[in-house]
Amino acid sequence: MSGEWQIRFTKQAKKDVDSLSPKLKQKLRDILINTVANDPYVGKKLLGDLTGSFSIRLTHKDRLVYSLDEQNKIVYVERARTHYGR
């Protein structure tokens, strides 16, 4: 992937991505490559249990949730579906 930051997926995020429609998989890919890999601080800062993570809307209910390893410039995708419960 292009950009300054590397993108890595957690096991849960990989499961989430597998359950997305092809259209949403493409949207997720575009967001990661064109936005997050270049400026990972663009997402909304989350609070509560997800403090330290960022969120970008995929659909009305689904979100891309990720955290950062600033020292190594790695974006860890934590979820690619809703973060409002299972």
Number of strands: 5
Identify the overall geometry: globular
What is the string of helix and strand elements? EHHEEEE
Query: How many helical elements?
Result: 2
Give the CATH class.
Alpha Beta
For the largest beta-sheet, the strand count, sense and barrel status come to: 5 strands, mixed
Average pLDDT score: 91
Summarize the structure.
Helices cover 27% and strands 27% of the residues. The chain has helices at 11-18, 22-36, and strands spanning 6-9, 44-45, 54-57, 63-69, 74-79.
Task: Please name the defining characteristics of this protein.
86 residues, alpha+beta, YaeB-like fold, five-stranded mixed β-sheet
Question: If you had to describe this structure to a student in words, what would you say it looks like?
Answer:
This protein is α+β, with helices and mostly antiparallel strands and 86 residues long. It contains 2 helices and 5 strands; from the N terminus they run βααββββ. A hairpin with a 5-residue loop joins strand 3 and strand 4. The protein is globular and about 35 Å long.
Question: How would the blueprint of this fold be written?
Answer:
Layout: E1 6-9, H1 11-18, H2 22-36, E2 44-45, E3 54-57, E4 63-69, E5 74-79
Parallel strand pairs: 1-5
Antiparallel strand pairs: 2-3, 3-4, 4-5
